[in-house]
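task queued by scheduler; priority normal; single chain, no ligands, no partner chains; default sampling; output format set to C-alpha coordinates
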Amino acid sequence: MNTATVTPQVHGIFDPATWTVTYVVYEKPGAACAIIDSVLDYDPKSGRTSHKSADKVIEFVKAKDLKVAWILETHAHADHLSAAPYLKQHLGGQTAIGDHIGGVQKVFKGIFNMEDSFKVDGSQFDHLFAEEEAITIGNLTGSTLFVPGHTPACVAYQFGDAVFVGDTLFMPDVGTARCDFPGGDAKTLYASTRKILSLPPQTRLFMCHDYPPNGRSVNFETTVAEQKAKNIHVHDGIGEAEFVEMRTKRDATLEMPVLILPAVQINIRAGELPPKEDNGIAYVKIPLNAL
Protein backbone atom coordinates (compact mmCIF):
# COMPACT_ATOMS: atom_id res chain seq x y z
CA MET A 1 0.00 0.00 0.00
CA ASN A 2 1.48 3.31 -1.07
CA THR A 3 1.02 6.05 1.52
CA ALA A 4 2.99 9.18 2.20
CA THR A 5 5.57 9.55 4.94
CA VAL A 6 4.32 13.11 5.48
CA THR A 7 1.89 13.28 8.42
CA PRO A 8 -1.28 14.95 7.17
CA GLN A 9 -3.11 17.66 9.03
CA VAL A 10 -6.80 16.91 9.48
CA HIS A 11 -9.57 19.40 10.23
CA GLY A 12 -13.04 18.04 10.99
CA ILE A 13 -16.22 20.11 10.66
CA PHE A 14 -19.18 18.56 12.48
CA ASP A 15 -22.71 19.05 11.19
CA PRO A 16 -25.11 18.60 14.13
CA ALA A 17 -28.20 18.29 11.94
CA THR A 18 -26.95 15.06 10.34
CA TRP A 19 -24.25 14.02 12.83
CA THR A 20 -21.80 14.08 9.92
CA VAL A 21 -18.14 15.11 9.90
CA THR A 22 -16.62 16.71 6.81
CA TYR A 23 -12.82 16.55 6.70
CA VAL A 24 -10.21 18.77 5.11
CA VAL A 25 -6.90 16.91 4.69
CA TYR A 26 -3.71 18.80 3.86
CA GLU A 27 0.04 18.94 4.47
CA LYS A 28 0.38 22.56 5.58
CA PRO A 29 -1.19 26.00 4.97
CA GLY A 30 -0.85 27.07 1.37
CA ALA A 31 -0.71 23.48 0.13
CA ALA A 32 -3.18 21.28 -1.73
CA CYS A 33 -6.02 19.60 0.12
CA ALA A 34 -8.85 17.10 -0.18
CA ILE A 35 -12.37 17.50 1.18
CA ILE A 36 -14.03 14.28 2.34
CA ASP A 37 -17.78 13.68 2.81
CA SER A 38 -19.26 17.16 2.51
CA VAL A 39 -22.80 18.12 3.58
CA LEU A 40 -25.49 20.04 1.73
CA ASP A 41 -28.05 21.31 4.23
CA TYR A 42 -31.55 20.03 3.47
CA ASP A 43 -34.81 20.78 5.25
CA PRO A 44 -37.08 17.75 4.84
CA LYS A 45 -40.14 19.79 5.82
CA SER A 46 -39.76 22.39 3.07
CA GLY A 47 -37.51 20.62 0.57
CA ARG A 48 -35.14 23.59 0.66
CA THR A 49 -31.38 23.26 0.40
CA SER A 50 -28.82 25.66 1.88
CA HIS A 51 -25.07 25.87 2.35
CA LYS A 52 -24.31 26.64 5.99
CA SER A 53 -22.21 23.52 6.49
CA ALA A 54 -20.42 23.78 3.13
CA ASP A 55 -19.68 27.46 3.71
CA LYS A 56 -17.79 26.51 6.87
CA VAL A 57 -15.60 24.25 4.73
CA ILE A 58 -15.02 27.05 2.22
CA GLU A 59 -14.15 29.46 5.03
CA PHE A 60 -11.54 27.06 6.44
CA VAL A 61 -10.01 26.28 3.06
CA LYS A 62 -9.65 29.96 2.24
CA ALA A 63 -8.31 30.83 5.71
CA LYS A 64 -5.53 28.26 5.27
CA ASP A 65 -4.93 29.31 1.64
CA LEU A 66 -5.48 25.71 0.49
CA LYS A 67 -5.94 24.55 -3.09
CA VAL A 68 -8.59 21.86 -3.45
CA ALA A 69 -7.34 18.87 -5.43
CA TRP A 70 -10.10 16.39 -4.59
CA ILE A 71 -13.67 16.36 -3.28
CA LEU A 72 -14.04 12.76 -2.11
CA GLU A 73 -17.00 10.62 -1.10
CA THR A 74 -16.59 7.42 0.89
CA HIS A 75 -19.93 6.12 -0.45
CA ALA A 76 -23.39 7.22 -1.58
CA HIS A 77 -24.64 8.42 1.79
CA ALA A 78 -28.17 7.74 3.02
CA ASP A 79 -28.18 10.25 5.88
CA HIS A 80 -27.10 13.50 4.26
CA LEU A 81 -26.86 15.14 0.86
CA SER A 82 -23.45 15.85 -0.68
CA ALA A 83 -22.35 19.45 -1.27
CA ALA A 84 -19.70 18.40 -3.81
CA PRO A 85 -21.03 20.46 -6.76
CA TYR A 86 -21.28 23.61 -4.62
CA LEU A 87 -17.76 23.15 -3.26
CA LYS A 88 -16.39 22.47 -6.73
CA GLN A 89 -18.05 25.63 -8.02
CA HIS A 90 -16.43 27.76 -5.31
CA LEU A 91 -13.12 25.99 -4.74
CA GLY A 92 -12.36 23.81 -7.78
CA GLY A 93 -11.08 20.24 -7.49
CA GLN A 94 -12.23 16.90 -8.89
CA THR A 95 -15.08 14.86 -7.47
CA ALA A 96 -14.40 11.16 -6.84
CA ILE A 97 -15.78 8.00 -5.28
CA GLY A 98 -14.96 4.28 -5.37
CA ASP A 99 -15.30 2.50 -8.69
CA HIS A 100 -18.07 0.15 -7.49
CA ILE A 101 -20.58 3.01 -7.39
CA GLY A 102 -22.16 1.83 -10.66
CA GLY A 103 -23.70 -1.16 -8.90
CA VAL A 104 -25.35 1.11 -6.34
CA GLN A 105 -26.56 3.43 -9.10
CA LYS A 106 -28.10 0.51 -10.97
CA VAL A 107 -30.08 -0.65 -7.93
CA PHE A 108 -31.39 2.78 -7.01
CA LYS A 109 -32.10 3.84 -10.58
CA GLY A 110 -34.65 1.04 -10.53
CA ILE A 111 -36.03 1.88 -7.08
CA PHE A 112 -36.51 5.54 -8.01
CA ASN A 113 -37.45 4.83 -11.66
CA MET A 114 -34.99 7.50 -12.72
CA GLU A 115 -34.83 8.97 -16.20
CA ASP A 116 -33.54 6.67 -18.95
CA SER A 117 -30.61 9.02 -19.62
CA PHE A 118 -29.19 8.51 -16.11
CA LYS A 119 -26.04 6.43 -16.56
CA VAL A 120 -25.06 3.70 -14.10
CA ASP A 121 -21.33 3.82 -14.83
CA GLY A 122 -20.23 6.44 -12.29
CA SER A 123 -19.60 9.01 -15.01
CA GLN A 124 -21.32 11.70 -12.94
CA PHE A 125 -18.07 11.83 -10.93
CA ASP A 126 -14.81 13.19 -12.32
CA HIS A 127 -12.88 10.10 -11.22
CA LEU A 128 -13.56 6.60 -9.86
CA PHE A 129 -10.90 5.15 -7.56
CA ALA A 130 -9.95 1.50 -7.81
CA GLU A 131 -8.78 -0.60 -4.86
CA GLU A 132 -5.36 0.62 -3.62
CA GLU A 133 -5.20 3.29 -6.32
CA ALA A 134 -2.92 6.16 -5.34
CA ILE A 135 -4.37 9.59 -4.52
CA THR A 136 -2.08 12.60 -4.78
CA ILE A 137 -2.67 15.80 -2.79
CA GLY A 138 0.40 17.96 -3.30
CA ASN A 139 3.16 16.22 -1.34
CA LEU A 140 0.68 13.85 0.29
CA THR A 141 0.16 10.50 -1.38
CA GLY A 142 -2.61 8.24 -0.18
CA SER A 143 -4.50 5.20 -1.33
CA THR A 144 -8.03 3.83 -1.56
CA LEU A 145 -9.22 0.91 0.57
CA PHE A 146 -12.25 -1.07 -0.60
CA VAL A 147 -14.39 -1.64 2.53
CA PRO A 148 -17.87 -2.82 1.46
CA GLY A 149 -20.61 -4.10 3.74
CA HIS A 150 -22.57 -1.00 4.74
CA THR A 151 -22.99 -0.55 0.98
CA PRO A 152 -21.35 -2.61 -1.78
CA ALA A 153 -19.32 0.39 -2.91
CA CYS A 154 -17.87 1.80 0.34
CA VAL A 155 -14.24 2.93 0.34
CA ALA A 156 -11.90 4.40 2.94
CA TYR A 157 -9.08 6.82 2.15
CA GLN A 158 -5.65 6.55 3.76
CA PHE A 159 -3.11 9.36 3.89
CA GLY A 160 -0.04 8.63 5.99
CA ASP A 161 -1.21 7.60 9.46
CA ALA A 162 -4.77 8.85 8.89
CA VAL A 163 -7.64 6.73 7.54
CA PHE A 164 -11.09 8.10 6.76
CA VAL A 165 -13.35 5.11 7.27
CA GLY A 166 -16.72 6.42 6.11
CA ASP A 167 -19.55 4.48 7.77
CA THR A 168 -17.61 1.23 8.20
CA LEU A 169 -16.78 1.99 11.84
CA PHE A 170 -18.08 4.42 14.43
CA MET A 171 -16.49 5.44 17.71
CA PRO A 172 -15.84 2.42 19.98
CA ASP A 173 -18.90 3.06 22.16
CA VAL A 174 -21.17 3.21 19.09
CA GLY A 175 -19.86 0.24 17.09
CA THR A 176 -20.37 -0.33 13.37
CA ALA A 177 -22.63 0.67 10.49
CA ARG A 178 -25.90 -1.00 9.58
CA CYS A 179 -25.97 -3.48 6.69
CA ASP A 180 -29.64 -3.66 5.74
CA PHE A 181 -29.66 -1.18 2.85
CA PRO A 182 -29.84 -2.69 -0.68
CA GLY A 183 -26.55 -4.47 -1.34
CA GLY A 184 -25.41 -4.33 2.28
CA ASP A 185 -24.01 -7.45 3.94
CA ALA A 186 -22.95 -8.05 7.55
CA LYS A 187 -20.42 -10.77 6.71
CA THR A 188 -18.77 -8.47 4.19
CA LEU A 189 -18.73 -5.60 6.69
CA TYR A 190 -17.00 -7.79 9.27
CA ALA A 191 -14.21 -8.53 6.79
CA SER A 192 -13.90 -4.80 6.03
CA THR A 193 -13.58 -3.92 9.71
CA ARG A 194 -10.83 -6.51 10.14
CA LYS A 195 -9.06 -5.03 7.12
CA ILE A 196 -9.01 -1.61 8.76
CA LEU A 197 -8.09 -3.03 12.16
CA SER A 198 -5.12 -4.90 10.68
CA LEU A 199 -3.38 -1.56 10.16
CA PRO A 200 -0.69 -0.47 12.68
CA PRO A 201 -2.13 0.16 16.17
CA GLN A 202 -1.25 3.86 16.18
CA THR A 203 -3.11 4.53 12.91
CA ARG A 204 -5.56 7.40 13.33
CA LEU A 205 -9.13 6.58 12.30
CA PHE A 206 -11.57 9.35 11.41
CA MET A 207 -15.30 8.60 11.55
CA CYS A 208 -17.85 10.00 9.09
CA HIS A 209 -20.41 10.30 11.90
CA ASP A 210 -20.71 10.34 15.65
CA TYR A 211 -23.84 9.50 17.59
CA PRO A 212 -22.60 10.01 21.16
CA PRO A 213 -24.35 7.85 23.78
CA ASN A 214 -24.81 8.60 27.46
CA GLY A 215 -24.30 12.31 27.09
CA ARG A 216 -20.65 12.20 26.06
CA SER A 217 -19.25 14.99 23.90
CA VAL A 218 -19.04 14.56 20.14
CA ASN A 219 -15.79 12.87 19.11
CA PHE A 220 -14.78 11.49 15.74
CA GLU A 221 -11.11 10.48 16.00
CA THR A 222 -9.83 7.22 17.43
CA THR A 223 -7.07 4.68 16.70
CA VAL A 224 -6.82 1.11 15.52
CA ALA A 225 -5.61 0.10 19.00
CA GLU A 226 -8.58 1.72 20.71
CA GLN A 227 -11.06 0.14 18.30
CA LYS A 228 -9.54 -3.32 18.73
CA ALA A 229 -9.70 -2.98 22.50
CA LYS A 230 -13.06 -1.27 22.98
CA ASN A 231 -15.36 -1.31 19.94
CA ILE A 232 -18.61 -2.75 21.24
CA HIS A 233 -19.29 -4.65 18.00
CA VAL A 234 -15.88 -5.73 16.66
CA HIS A 235 -13.29 -5.64 19.42
CA ASP A 236 -10.67 -8.37 19.38
CA GLY A 237 -12.24 -11.70 20.27
CA ILE A 238 -15.53 -11.19 18.42
CA GLY A 239 -15.75 -13.60 15.50
CA GLU A 240 -17.60 -13.33 12.23
CA ALA A 241 -20.60 -15.47 13.22
CA GLU A 242 -21.16 -13.56 16.45
CA PHE A 243 -20.91 -10.24 14.63
CA VAL A 244 -23.28 -11.26 11.84
CA GLU A 245 -25.89 -12.47 14.33
CA MET A 246 -25.66 -9.24 16.34
CA ARG A 247 -25.68 -6.97 13.29
CA THR A 248 -28.63 -8.76 11.66
CA LYS A 249 -30.77 -8.63 14.81
CA ARG A 250 -29.88 -5.00 15.49
CA ASP A 251 -30.55 -3.86 11.92
CA ALA A 252 -34.04 -5.34 12.08
CA THR A 253 -34.90 -2.86 14.86
CA LEU A 254 -33.60 0.30 13.14
CA GLU A 255 -35.74 2.88 11.40
CA MET A 256 -34.73 4.20 7.99
CA PRO A 257 -32.62 7.40 8.11
CA VAL A 258 -34.74 10.55 7.86
CA LEU A 259 -33.04 11.71 4.66
CA ILE A 260 -32.48 8.40 2.87
CA LEU A 261 -34.93 9.07 0.03
CA PRO A 262 -33.67 12.50 -1.03
CA ALA A 263 -30.07 11.73 -0.10
CA VAL A 264 -29.48 8.58 -2.10
CA GLN A 265 -31.07 9.78 -5.33
CA ILE A 266 -29.00 12.98 -5.21
CA ASN A 267 -25.77 11.42 -3.98
CA ILE A 268 -25.67 8.83 -6.78
CA ARG A 269 -25.73 11.87 -9.09
CA ALA A 270 -22.48 13.08 -7.45
CA GLY A 271 -24.52 15.62 -5.49
CA GLU A 272 -26.25 17.19 -8.48
CA LEU A 273 -29.98 17.82 -8.17
CA PRO A 274 -32.29 15.92 -10.54
CA PRO A 275 -32.97 17.56 -13.91
CA LYS A 276 -35.41 20.45 -13.68
CA GLU A 277 -38.83 19.78 -15.12
CA ASP A 278 -40.68 22.04 -17.55
CA ASN A 279 -41.68 24.40 -14.74
CA GLY A 280 -38.02 25.02 -13.83
CA ILE A 281 -38.16 23.06 -10.54
CA ALA A 282 -36.18 19.92 -9.65
CA TYR A 283 -38.00 17.14 -7.82
CA VAL A 284 -36.99 14.15 -5.73
CA LYS A 285 -39.18 11.06 -5.79
CA ILE A 286 -40.72 9.33 -2.78
CA PRO A 287 -41.30 5.68 -3.75
CA LEU A 288 -44.17 4.26 -1.70
CA ASN A 289 -43.75 0.86 -0.02
CA ALA A 290 -40.50 0.20 -1.87
CA LEU A 291 -37.90 0.17 0.93
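post-processing summary
- The domain at 9-264 is CATH 3.60.15.10 (Metallo-beta-lactamase; Chain A).
- Helices lie at 52-63, 84-91, 101-112, 186-197, 224-230, 240-251, 260-267.
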